[in-house]
TrEMBL record:
<dbReference type="InterPro" id="IPR011010">
    <property type="entry name" value="DNA_brk_join_enz"/>
</dbReference>
<keyword id="KW-0233">DNA recombination</keyword>
<keyword id="KW-0229">DNA integration</keyword>
<feature type="domain" description="Core-binding (CB)">
    <location>
        <begin position="103"/>
        <end position="187"/>
    </location>
</feature>
<dbReference type="InterPro" id="IPR025269">
    <property type="entry name" value="SAM-like_dom"/>
</dbReference>
<protein>
    <submittedName>
        <fullName>Recombinase</fullName>
    </submittedName>
</protein>
<dbReference type="GO" id="GO:0003677">
    <property type="term" value="F:DNA binding"/>
</dbReference>
<dbReference type="InterPro" id="IPR050090">
    <property type="entry name" value="Tyrosine_recombinase_XerCD"/>
</dbReference>
<feature type="coiled-coil region">
    <location>
        <begin position="63"/>
        <end position="90"/>
    </location>
</feature>
<dbReference type="InterPro" id="IPR044068">
    <property type="entry name" value="CB"/>
</dbReference>
<keyword id="KW-0238">DNA-binding</keyword>
<dbReference type="InterPro" id="IPR013762">
    <property type="entry name" value="Integrase-like_cat_sf"/>
</dbReference>
<dbReference type="InterPro" id="IPR035386">
    <property type="entry name" value="Arm-DNA-bind_5"/>
</dbReference>
<comment type="similarity">
    <text>Belongs to the 'phage' integrase family.</text>
</comment>
<dbReference type="InterPro" id="IPR010998">
    <property type="entry name" value="Integrase_recombinase_N"/>
</dbReference>
<dbReference type="Pfam" id="PF00589">
    <property type="entry name" value="Phage_integrase"/>
</dbReference>
<feature type="domain" description="Tyr recombinase">
    <location>
        <begin position="214"/>
        <end position="403"/>
    </location>
</feature>
Amino acid sequence: MSSNAKIVLRKKPNKEGLYPLAIRITKNRRSTYQYIGHYIELEDWDEKNIRVKKSHINFKTLNNLLSLKLSELNNALITLQSEQKDASANQIKKEIYSSGINATFFELAQEHLDDLESTEKLNRLSTDKAWLSFIIKYHNSKQLSFQEIDERFLKKLMLTLKVKYSLSETSIMNILVFVRLLFNRAIKYKIVSRELYPFGGDKIKIKFPETTKVGLNILEIQQIENLINLKPSEIHTRNVWLFSFNFAGMRVSDVLRTKWSDIYDNRLHYRMHKNAKLLSLKIPEKVLKILDQYKDDKRSDDDFVFPELKKADPENAKDLYNKRKTATKRFNDNLKSISKKAKINKKITMHIARHSFGNIAGDAIHPLMLQKLYRHSDLKTTLNYQANFIHKEADDALDSVINF
């Protein structure tokens, strides 16, 4: 399918309430945006004729600029097609604009966010938007060149994030990872010299603090299973949590996306939303009892098992994401009251189901098998879920020496 370009006014206002003019590049129904660098009022844009209205003081100049930019891009697209370069919208944009030597940090950041939005990586989009907002608040200007991002800049940023905004060490490291990502992209695009790279060696080091998420033990899970004084919403939350736990800590996004058509031959067959990896698991007896509670609401084989996504638009990634996010918050709120009723002092969230399975697995499951169940790319990630077992090994080793 051929690529095309169109001038658009993006409906994302800046702090002054003005909207950015951009060129939308589309290929195979995937789009990305190249910003012109000018902002106008919403009422100054003629959507039908794709022009700046006469009501804008510089309408002639802006329209001439838009025509020029669109013409330049179309000529570049023709050149790429003549060279038989079949690429995605994002690759086309990078090919054409990679020589943008004056691109700023925030322009490249916006390009990154647009890439995430166009590829429907909405969870990552939400997270990276949050990290970017802290950098904007710190710098207090959208004019930031990569040459300005040196060790001194990053050290002051880290100090401000810790002292003024009270961010955790983990959050600060995540923001540095975000900056590093864009800096590497700027080097690739030849926007900044590799010699100015402020990370690694004796420069800025990104080191995450060790963290532990304490899962539940067998007795605590049994306490939750046996609770009888729960409200209907809490019973539903418990069902979702136990469904997750019994399927090796299945992520809540995958639990809510489960359809009746995924269940056949006494197995659950599903593709993980996070990494698109396939998994097939035997359905435990406990899960069969949970499924029985939802069969009366089954509208078709292609219907969702749980109700949260039944009214979502399956073609609208944002709608699906927002409904999953809202549901997860509600589940976590309910889990607080469930933990109180079960007299469990540990913090329980949907994600703790995953850690609970890993901790209880202990030496019953080899780390490589748990890695397979979790579909982790790195074994180190899996070992974090077996923290309690690792502690037990250390405790046993200590006892073997001092108990004499």
